[in-house]
Amino acid sequence: GSAAATKVQRNPSFSMLNSDDINYFKGILGDKNVIQDEDRLLTSNTDWMNKYRGSSKLLLLPRSTEEVSQILNYCNSRSLAVVPQGGNTGLVGGSVPVYDEVIINVGLMNSIISFDKVSGILVCEAGCILENLITFLDTQGFVMPLDLGAKGSCQIGGNVSTNAGGLRLVRYGSLHGNILGIEAVLANGDVLDMLGTLRKDNTGYDLKHLFIGSEGSLGIVTKVSILTPPKLSSVNLAFLACKDYFSCQKLLVEAKRKLGEILSAFEFLDNVAMDLALNHLEGVRNPLPPSLHNFYVLIETTGSNESSDKEKLEAFLLQAMEVGLISDGALSQDINQASSFWRLREGLPEALQKSGAVYKYDLSIPVEKMYDLVEEMRARLGAPTKVVAYGHLGDGNLHLNISAPQYDEKILAQIEPFVYEWTSKRRGSISAEHGLGLMKANEIFYSKSKNTVQLMGSIKKLLDPNGILNPYKVLPHSLSR
Ligand code: FAD
To answer: Which residues form the FAD-binding PCMH-type domain (predicted)?
Structure first.
C-alpha cells in the first residue's frame, strides 16, 4: 500500500484472490479481458499524481452490463473487494486500490446508445471518454454541459461517480441537474435500471442522485443519459489581469450582472500559478505583455448572436478597465488563440504534477474569504514550498495546491488539519468537486454532521452489506467495517 494507505489496515474479512477466481473471470470475460500483466497493473495501481499505489493483481475489463453484474455477484459471494476505475484521473486516491482489490474498468463499454436531436438527450455507456462525447456532440450541433482538463482520459462514468464540476458549471450547473438517468450495478450484481430520459419524473425517491458523486462506493455505473445544450455560434474568451484579489471578486459580481446569460466560464489563477505554467508547460506563454500582475481571470461568453455578444463583452471590459478592476487584457481572435488561453488554465494540474510533489486541496469557500486562506498558508509554510492558487471562482471553488520538492510528513503536518479546520470554520466544503476518496474519508466530519454521516453509513450497508465496493474510501474508517 501507499504511504497514505498505511493509516488503514486491510480488512481481514476480504478474501485473497486464488486461481479458481481467475478461471471463473476468464470464463465470463475471456482470457483477453482478464489482465494480470504486471506493467498494465502497475499503471492501474498508481494514481494520476503518483501519490497513491495499490497492489492489485487483477484488472477486469467487462464489455456489458451483464458481465459487470456477473463479476460483482461473484466478488460479493466470495468477499473479494473491488475498486471501480474509469480514466484514473481522480485526485483523491479514490480510483486505485489501497491493497489488493480487484480493479474493474468499464473502458470497453464505450458506445453511444442514442442521441435525440430534438431534446438534446444523449444516452451512452459509462466507459465513453469525455472528449469523445464532446467531439460527437459537436458533429450534432450540441455541447457537453461538462468540460474539464482531464477530458482526454476521464470517462463519463467516472465523471458521474465523482460529480465532476469543471469549467462550465457556472453556466450549465452540476451533473445533478444534467444527468437524467443512470444504469448501475449493485454489489450483489442486481442491475438498477434508472436510465430515464425525462426532464421531469417525480415518482418517488430519485435514487440516481445517490450514485452521482458516490465515488464507486455504492455501485458501478454502466450507462448514463445526459441532457446536452445546443452549441451556440458565438464564443468569446478574454484573458485578463487584475491587480488584487478584491478586483477579481468585484469583476465576478459585475460579470454576472452585466454579461448575464452569456457568461459561460469565470476562472482565476494567481501569479504563482502563472509562473508554474510558464515553467512547466511546453509552448505556453502569457497572453499579456510581461508585467507584475498578481491575478489573472479567464472569462468566456457563449451566445447566439456574434455581434451583440461581442458588443456586450467589450462594453463590460471597457467599463471594468475604466474603474480599475482590470489592469490589462486580451480577447482571443480565433480558435487557436482561445485554446492557448484555455491550455494555460487547464494545464495547471499537469504543471504541478511535473514540478514535484503536490498537496491538493479542493475547497468551496465563500468567495470574499477564499484568498485569505492562500495568504495564511503562504505565511505558515514559507520556502521551499510554493502555494499555488487557481480555480473556478465563478462557483466559489478554490484549488489550493502546495507544491514541494518531495512528499514530507513535516510539511503535511503544517497543512493538515489546519486547512480543514479553516474551511470548516467558514462553513465551506473540504471537497468542492474531487470527492473524498482515500485522502479525505476520515475528514468527512469537517463538512458533514454526525447524523448525516451515520445515514450515509446505513445506506452503504444496505446497498453493499459486505463492503466490497471501493473499501477504505469516502466513509470514515470507523464506520466502514
Ligand atoms: P477515476 O479517476 O478512474 O475514478 C474516480 C472515482 O470514481 C473513483 O472513486 C472510482 O472508483 C469511481 N468510478 C470511476 N468510474 C466508475 C464507474 N463507472 N462506476 C462507479 N464508480 C466509478 N474534477 C472536477 O470536478 N473538475 C475539474 O475541473 C477537474 N479537472 C481535472 C483536471 C485534470 C488535469 C485532472 C487530472 C483531474 C481533474 N479533475 C477535475 C478530477 C476529476 O475527478 C476527474 O478528472 C474525473 O471526473 C474522474 O473521471 P475518471 O474516469 O478518471 O475516474
So the answer is: 52-231
